[in-house]
Amino acid sequence: MPIIALDEALDALSKADARQGKIVEMKFFGGLSTQEIADVLDISLATVERKWATARIWLRREMKRSAAP
Prior knowledge:
Oligomer: single chain
Radius of gyration: 12 Å
CATH class: Mainly Alpha
Helix content: over 70%
């Protein structure tokens, strides 16, 4: 169940903000560092860190919402 909820939350995040979804995929599934992600996406380290922090909060909230009865 948690894996399905994570997949659904990540899909929703990617639809809302494609870059955030890509950052989560690269960080969580690819194991890339924030600096590596910044290099790959050609964006600043600060942008990656900000979007990663926001995405984690968003995903946590969505996961809790999907787990609620």
